[in-house]
Amino acid sequence: MKISYVMIVLNGMPFIEASLKSIYDSAYEIIIVEGAVKQCMFAANPDGSSKDGTVEFIKAFPDPKKKIKLIQGIWPEKCEMQNKAVKIATGDYIWLVDSDEVYKKKDIEVIIGMLDADPTITQINFSLFHFWKGFEYVLSSPILKSHPGFFRVFKLDKPCYFTTHRPPTFLLQRYKKTTYQMNRVENSVMVKKGIFIYHYSYVSDSQVKQKVELYKKYGWDKFWKMDLDDWFNNCYLKWTVANRETVEAKYPVWTGDKRSRTELFLGVHPDSILERSWKI
Hints:
7-stranded mixed β-sheet; 3-stranded mixed β-sheet; 11 helices; about 25% strand
């Protein structure tokens, strides 16, 4: 089974290293589409590229089998970034991976085994562990617990393309249906198998600050009826293990659900996270 991993990224340090290490061995190809969407140019260089060394890291990443293809630019939106990758992908499946998402290699092997056993599968959805302010706590939210999952693996049957990014919706033109409407594997199935995505997007201050600024550009602060600057300064930055109950009594830890709280992570991180000491 040939897997075309697709990663869209702007300022992906430091977790892009762990992400790439977790997927490299299982990849047929890794297509990285780098650069800012127009709303996020505030976080980019004038040419749209990452400011944090992401491009330099990608170019230096060991790639003995020449699997990595890097495409750069300034993009209208993330959907266009994904579709740029779809045009050149040649695998059997597209697997979207954010630069701060990490997998366990043994879990990837199980998933590829599922696809080999049943190539009629058109989509696989996952649940995520969203790590918060380090590696010991994760977000917990009623909305996330009832969420239909995060759409990541899609049957590649050209002509096909993503119609949206939020959530990623993949249309197979031959069937005039999305992969979600066909033979999808629900995230509940993956949870029963003990397979999750390990998501480190709320660990780094700079990463969360960039999210907040982008959310304000989209007007999501008004939609959520939240002062995101206040949330960042007085919830995210001030949160500690010692004061978590006090802070969380006033603020949600996830902006998408005012009932969200943190809970202790009781699992085991992927090897590519465990193998190094992290300075965030």
